[in-house]
Amino acid sequence: MAKIIVVTSGKGGVGKTTSAAAISTGLALRGKKTVVIDFDVGLRNLDLIMGCERRVVYDLVNVIQGEAGLNQALIRDKRVENLFILPASQTRDKDALTQEGVEEILAKLREEFDYIICDSPAGIERGAQLAMYFADEAVVVTNPEVSSVRDSDRILGLLASKTRRAERSDDPIKEHLLITRYNPDRVTSGDMLTLDDIREILAIDLLGLIPESEAVLRASNQGVPVTHDASSDAGQAYTDTVARLLGEDVPLRFHQAQKKGILTRMFGGSRR
Amino acid sequence: MKLMEFLKRERKKSASVAKERLQIIVAHQRSQRGQPDYMPMLERELLEVIRRYVHVDDDAIQISLDSEDNCSVLELNVTLPKS
């Protein structure tokens, strides 16, 4: 029986798709059979981040409307075994998704996979609500910035009321905080909310902290999820995040400003 | 002395301003969590009705819905100005 995890945030541009791609890649690298689903119908981008945009033939909407089988639409990742991508449609609008259709697809995937990662669209409307509706756990992606934190709190409200677990009064969805684009230097200078500020305000468990990193743009440029860049800070931070998702106790890294040595000061070191 | 104070005065860090603002707005959001969708509308309309008789400010009205065992209690608090 697979675990369904929604990657969500409310606000756009905080790193949902990057995180969904990185986490699903990390889970597959750990040997878990994983599928990552793009729920952003109309504005699909997960295929691009995963580097499989030229192999998309059928999509989520095709499967829901019976125009293609689930196995025809699933794209096998070329880099990791056990990883599959279910892309979103680019031509239809979000009304093409139905709750019954999504439920049916998830039920089929549940039998075959260990983890189902749902990459939510931004906003709090239909697409976002469908992405979270059947979830067992939620990764709330938050930037250390006021609008992102406020929107994350709104999403927490929806997770607690507009999901199947909430409606059936089952065990509530397990909520995890994932802070992205964290810049320890700016935190030290007092111009960025600290890790503890965000934790205190949102009051949910911290799953991971991803530092602001050049590796992320480099990864998306190349269509290779940043988890593969094992020498980068962001890649390592996502690997830690995945380990925690699997229940391991991993100490936090990259949350403190690096002391700059004299050479870095003089010549300026590039961030990994 | 005044000059020293001026020089020593530290500009309030922007992150702590952000935190204070967020704490207020999030507390407000949470107080509205789980309440029925019609509550903001109900609050506005009640305020309109009251204003037909007395002049009150926007924040003079406080409304909350509490549910007990098998009934819900709508609590309405209006602060009227001294006449």
Automatic annotation (TrEMBL), chain A:
Classification via Gene3D superfamilies: P-loop containing nucleotide triphosphate hydrolases
Keywords from the UniProt entry: ATP-binding, Cell cycle, Cell division, Nucleotide-binding, Septation
Entry keyword annotation includes Cell division: yes
A Pfam family: AAA_31
A GO biological process held by the record: negative regulation of cell division
GO cellular-component term (any): cytosol
Entry superkingdom: Bacteria
Residues reported to bind ATP: K11, G12, G13, V14, G15, K16, T17, T18
GO molecular function, one term: ATP hydrolysis activity
The family this protein is said to belong to: Belongs to the ParA family. MinD subfamily.
PANTHER family: SEPTUM SITE-DETERMINING PROTEIN MIND HOMOLOG, CHLOROPLASTIC (PTHR43384:SF6), SEPTUM SITE-DETERMINING PROTEIN MIND HOMOLOG, CHLOROPLASTIC-RELATED (PTHR43384)
Function as written in the Swiss-Prot or TrEMBL entry: ATPase required for the correct placement of the division site. Cell division inhibitors MinC and MinD act in concert to form an inhibitor capable of blocking formation of the polar Z ring septums. Rapidly oscillates between the poles of the cell to destabilize FtsZ filaments that have formed before they mature into polar Z rings.
Protein's UniProt name: Septum site-determining protein MinD
Organism in which the protein naturally occurs: Vreelandella salicampi
Automatic annotation (TrEMBL), chain B:
Cross-referenced Pfam families: MinE (PF03776)
The keyword Membrane is annotated on this UniProt entry: no
Record InterPro entries: MinE, MinE_sf
SUPFAM superfamilies associated with the record: Cell division protein MinE topological specificity domain (SSF55229)
Record has NAD as a keyword: no
A GO molecular function held by the record: identical protein binding
Signal peptide limits: none
GO biological process: cell division; regulation of division septum assembly
Domain of life: Bacteria
Keywords: Cell cycle, Cell division
Functional description taken from the UniProt entry: Prevents the cell division inhibition by proteins MinC and MinD at internal division sites while permitting inhibition at polar sites. This ensures cell division at the proper site by restricting the formation of a division septum at the midpoint of the long axis of the cell.
Family designation: Belongs to the MinE family.
Name this protein carries in UniProt: Cell division topological specificity factor
Natural source organism: Vreelandella salicampi
Top-level taxonomy: Bacteria, Pseudomonadati, Pseudomonadota, Gammaproteobacteria, Oceanospirillales
